[in-house]
Design brief:
mainly beta, four-stranded antiparallel beta sheet, Methylamine Dehydrogenase, Chain H, about 10% helix, about 475 residues
Length: about 475
């Protein structure tokens, strides 16, 4: 649900080579000093071997619920449990994606923003979407962004943020809770520059259901609804206001002596990773479990950021926040989860909640994590993807509408190297390479080396988690 990360396309070429190697399609015996191996042209993807200038090197895929046009594909208007391709106008090359609620967005290598899905609150960034209600195909966001190249985007439930290369923030959509940051509750159907006092250059943005966050010079700024402590300004500050809202970006004083590297937002919480790899979180973080046998839990609200330590003081590399669960990626590639497990989104095999981080993926070289409302995602350094949690809308991509208790390798995208995946409520959009070998997206035509690898991966994982 969160967004605002660095564009993933910079890692794309390296991931592409890694994916070919792990699938046994290249021989790296001749590679020296970490250099990319020389690949026989017959083994390279056709699009890359031919260097077709009319085709993008990277593609967008989507799956899950599509009832509001959030999948952005002409192939389906309802839901799909297998990936479908999204085509951007003029075959522009995507480099970054974001999702939330029932809409999606992408940034291209030229800095152009495209959005699709429902736009009743103006979150798509163009006025006609507020009239018709939805836009099922990607459409360019213009207005104030027409001449401004964008480097990152973040989607809230009914609003959106965009970060320019120069460090300015633009916002649009609903401002019912002040989440646009313009000092009022006026919604905007088109992008509007966020005016902040003094010269500030922002480096990272994130959006939750009713609040927003950003980093400037390593300091955390938040605005919007603070009802559940998600703004981090302290209980006295929040309770002292009439509507529990802050209408403009305001620095979080409790983090004033801490330098932050990245920020993410969940529905009712905000998390930052410090430059030292520590995780600080405010809002409703995790349930408190009562008793040894009882499953009764209560919500704990933190009005100022608190540290969320990993076992053995492991440093945090990435974090993802869902509605009521959190995924933590350690620097060694291990994944931990905590929060609500009612929909299997924690990946530990039970629907029980966790008040402390628990290891769920180990030794898989994970480099990215993502979280939807009730489902979770992890991407490996080789471009493979695991999903788990609620699957009734097909959002897990396994070809069924069933939920998964444990992380499961997604075979439907094993032909590609996944660079980035983001989640809406019940859908996903992924940035990936073109198919890496003949057979396209036909799982029945997997090379034997890949089919064997898939089966062994799941077997090894189930032994580990059990």
């Amino acid at each position: 649900m969160e967004a605002g990360r660095s564009p993933a396309w910079k890692e794309g070429k390296e991931l592409e080579w890694k994916a070919l190697l792990v699938h046994g399609l290249l021989d790296d015996g001749g590679a020296a000093g970490g250099a990319a191996p020389v690949a026989p042209s017959s083994l390279l993807p056709r699009a890359h071997a031919a260097k077709n200038k009319h085709r993008s090197s990277f593609e967008l895929l989507s799956w899950g619920a599509g009832y509001q046009g959030q999948l952005g594909s002409q192939r389906t208007s309802h839901k799909t449990n297998l990936p479908v391709r999204i085509t951007l106008p003029d075959d522009e090359e995507p480099c970054h994606v974001a999702c939330a609620g029932v809409f999606s967005a992408a940034v291209t290598t030229s800095g152009t923003v495209y959005t699709w899905g429902t736009g009743k609150q103006g979150q798509l960034g163009f006025r006609n979407a507020t009239v018709c209600g939805l836009q099922p195909q990607p459409m360019q966001v213009t207005g104030a962004l027409s001449e401004v190249p964008i480097t990152a985007i973040a989607c809230g439930r009914e609003h959106m943020l965009a970060l320019s290369f120069s460090g300015n923030i633009f916002s649009w959509g609903s401002s019912k809770y002040g989440q646009l940051g313009h000092g009022d509750h006026h919604s905007h159907a088109e992008p509007r520059l966020l005016e902040v006092g003094g010269e500030k250059t922002f480096s990272c943005i994130a959006a939750g259901d009713q609040h927003s966050a950003a980093l400037c010079d390593g300091k955390l700024y938040t605005w919007g609804s603070g009802t559940y402590g998600q703004l981090g300004h302290g209980e006295t500050h929040v309770l002292g206001t009439d509507e529990l809202q802050i209408l403009r970006p305001t620095k979080v004083d409790a983090m004033d002596r801490t330098l932050c590297r990245s920020v993410v937002c969940g529905s009712v919480h905000t998390g930052v990773i410090t430059v030292h790899g520590q995780m600080q979180v405010c809002g409703i973080i995790a349930p408190r479990v009562h008793g040894v046998v009882s499953t009764i839990t209560t919500e704990v609200i933190h009005y100022t950021p608190v540290e969320l330590p990993l076992p053995h003081k492991a440093m945090v590399k990435d974090v993802a926040c869902g509605k009521s669960h959190i995924l933590l990626l350690a620097h060694n590639g291990d994944v931990f989860s905590l929060g609500s497990g009612a929909h299997n989104q924690l990946g530990h095999g039970k629907v029980s909640d966790l008040s402390k981080p628990r290891l769920i993926l180990q030794g898989k070289d994970i480099v990215r994590v993502a979280a939807g409302r009730y489902h979770s995602v992890a991407i490996t350094a080789h471009g493979a993807m695991y999903t788990w949690g609620q699957g009734e809308h097909g959002q897990l991509g396994h070809g069924t509408d069933t939920s998964e208790r444990f992380p499961k390798l997604v075979s439907s995208v094993v032909h590609r190297a996944l660079l980035e995946a983001e989640c809406g409520d019940h859908h996903m959009v992924a940035l990936c390479t073109a198919p890496l070998f003949d057979g396209g997206d036909d799982a029945a035509r997997l090379p034997s080396t890949v089919a064997t690898w898939l089966a062994q991966e799941q077997t090894d994982f189930e032994k580990l988690i059990m």
